[in-house]
Design a protein that fits this description.
Length: 614
């Protein structure tokens, strides 16, 4: 199918699987410039330049990105193996050009060395991926048109072909590409970071592959010379029956900037933004497509002024609206409409302010946020919608899944789903309505749980457990540490992960089961507090007079009652010994010592001990 060996793509991956449903683009690309071809028109007797790009062009661009970023394709890119290979190949060069950190260097110099190495490794990986990307991808024409979502013209084949053909000449992007140049300067070998402005189109050039039916109308020479434009002009009925596939002639370097930087999170333009296609297909303005990705790239970093504040020219460039010279016309025709579309069709809303003041401003600050009203009232968790957060936690940590991304990257995907699906739709094992009903209980119970914890922290401390507000459940604290080897060959101690709690009856996986478990511990603690110290006779006690005293009777206990109670109040469990065959008795005794729950250690005695201590 694809005219290249060792390709990332296979027949099954492109044809046998549904669209991924989202696009994922590097922030490097998002924050670069967006160029749109213009054309002249007469408006009100005046010649003006307008954008030729339409929402259909952006939908075609989304389709191309989606194809390049299918999960099956990304799975075939083994970053760890490529990274190991890069380090192996570049290690000698790093030494040759002084890219080795040292304790003798300043922190700034070591940081620069590590940054330079990271850029060199990233570029090696991107070049390796680019070599594997096919320059030609073939796709069934009807399926490609269907994936674009250009529904109004899907039934008009000629018009669909025209839109697809013209789209590749309308849109292009520019981005900053970082490379490392290894060179000699004044007889010294140095590695220098280079920043180059690169430009390319995500939409490839398109060709058509005809089947033998076309031979009824055209000669062999005419078929070879046939372009999409000339085929559109050809007067033959039912044109779709003559085409088997559309051929996409890709630019591997541009594709790598889309999937490479976005997938690996390179040093420059770190990370990526992801957006659901079903929402994007609703946009009426082409600028909203770019704005959507921009606000998603900054939504979780509101305090980073360098990434959330833009000059007028920067914002125009990113949105592909550079023809607007005046702020008022840009605000009215571009900014306000895209803000409205963003809030209307997605789970994200955005506001803006002018800085430093409304009258005298130099920058536009965007303030995006997640909608947090899916439960019918305002409810959020760490800035996300509470329902989305809870579903994401439950699926990632308590349901079988194949997720390889962080919780923070998965939550936005869930956010989009809950604001797009209907209540009867199945979402990660339950209908959306079932999730909403249960999560409302969870939301209320968590408030009770946090109040319970604030009043009974000793129960958690005694049982070495704590409430993890990120995972929304109790965890068993793990005090063990393990040594890990960092990149600079330094050993560092790292605490092992805390453990999930599973009882004989249920697993603790949310605030409801967490509160139930704490209530059971509280009841158990009250039952344990029915003990008197003398209930554990016989035992031995280490008295201040020296040596171990045998406490075999009540008379013995009465003789040493005060020092025994004082030792228990101070939780000196090592002052007591039991027979070797009385393990359970000893453990029960020490548990009550740790809790200070013997009846003799009442509030009056505690107050007395505090007065003595003070």
């Amino acid at each position: 199918m694809i005219e290249k060996e060792n390709t990332l793509f296979t027949e099954d991956e492109l044809h046998g699987n549904p669209a991924a449903g989202f696009i994922q683009v590097s922030t490097n690309l998002i924050r670069g410039g967006s160029t749109v071809k213009k054309k002249k028109i007469i408006r009100g007797g005046i010649e003006v330049m307008i954008s030729e790009a339409t929402p259909n062009d952006k939908k075609i661009e989304d389709t191309c990105i989606e194809i390049f970023q299918t999960k099956e394709i990304r799975k075939r890119i083994n970053y760890n193996e490529l990274q190991d290979e890069a380090l192996n190949v570049l290690s000698d060069k790093f030494g040759e050009y002084g890219l080795i950190t040292s304790d003798e260097f300043t922190k700034a110099k070591n940081k620069l060395i590590l940054n330079t190495r990271k850029i060199a490794v990233d570029n090696y990986i991107k070049n390796s991926v680019a070599e594997s990307i096919p320059k030609t991808i073939k796709f069934p024409i009807k399926e490609f048109i269907k994936r674009t979502g250009i529904t109004r013209i899907q039934g008009r084949f000629n018009e669909a072909l025209k839109v697809i053909s013209e789209s590749s000449t309308k849109l292009s992007h520019s981005w900053m590409s970082q490379t490392v140049e290894f060179k000699e300067k004044n007889g010294k070998k140095i590695a220098e970071i280079k920043n180059d402005l690169t430009q390319g189109s995500i939409i490839p050039k398109f060709k058509l592959r005809f089947n033998d039916k076309i031979k009824k109308h055209l000669s062999e020479d005419e078929i070879r010379a046939m372009t999409i434009e000339s085929f559109i002009e050809l007067d033959v009925p039912n044109k779709s029956s003559y085409i088997d596939e559309i051929i996409m002639e890709t630019d591997p370097e541009t594709v790598v900037e889309i999937i490479g930087v976005g997938l690996f999170g390179s040093l420059f333009g770190k990370g990526y933004a992801r957006s659901e296609r079903r929402n994007r297909n609703l946009y009426k303005k082409s600028a909203t497509f770019n704005f959507d990705l921009l606000v998603r790239s900054i939504i979780n970093i509101p305090h980073n002024t360098t990434l959330t504040e833009f000059t007028f020219d920067q914002l125009k460039d990113i949105l592909g609206a550079s023809s607007y010279n005046k702020w008022e016309s840009f605000k009215k025709s571009v900014l306000l409409p895209v803000l409205k579309e963003q809030e209307l069709y997605t789970e994200v809303k955005c506001e803006y302010i002018l800085l430093p003041s409304q009258k005298n401003w130099t920058h536009i600050k965007l303030i995006p946020s997640w909608k947090t009203t899916s439960l019918g009232f305002e409810a959020e968790k760490r800035g996300f919608d509470y329902l989305a957060y809870f579903i994401a936690v439950q699926h990632k940590f308590f349901q079988a899944n194949s997720l390889d991304e962080s919780l923070e990257h998965f939550i936005p995907h869930v956010q989009s789903a809950i604001y797009s699906f209907n209540d009867e739709d199945i979402v990660w094992g339950k209908t959306l309505l079932e999730w909403k009903t249960y999560t409302k209980k969870v939301y209320e119970v968590e408030k009770e749980l946090l109040e319970f914890i604030s009043q009974n922290q000793d129960i958690l401390d005694d049982n070495n457990i704590f409430y993890d507000e990120r995972l929304l459940c109790l965890l068993k604290r793990n005090f063990k540490e393990e040594e890990i080897l960092e990149e600079n060959n330094q050993l560092k101690k790292k605490q092992k992960k805390n453990s999930y709690i599973t009882t004989n009856m249920y697993r603790i996986q949310d605030p409801i089961t967490s509160l139930r478990y704490l209530n059971e511990l509280l009841v158990k603690g009250k039952e344990d507090s029915n003990y008197y110290i003398f209930d554990f006779i016989p035992f031995q006690f280490a008295s201040m007079e020296g040596g171990w005293k045998s406490i075999n009777t009540l008379e013995d206990y009465q003789q040493y009652k005060d020092p025994i109670r004082s030792a228990i109040y101070k939780k000196k469990g090592s002052f007591f010994r039991f027979a070797e065959d009385e393990v359970n008795k000893k453990e029960n005794f020490l548990l009550n010592v740790e809790r200070g729950s013997f009846k003799e250690i009442d509030e009056r005695f505690k107050l007395l001990m505090q007065e003595i201590s003070s």
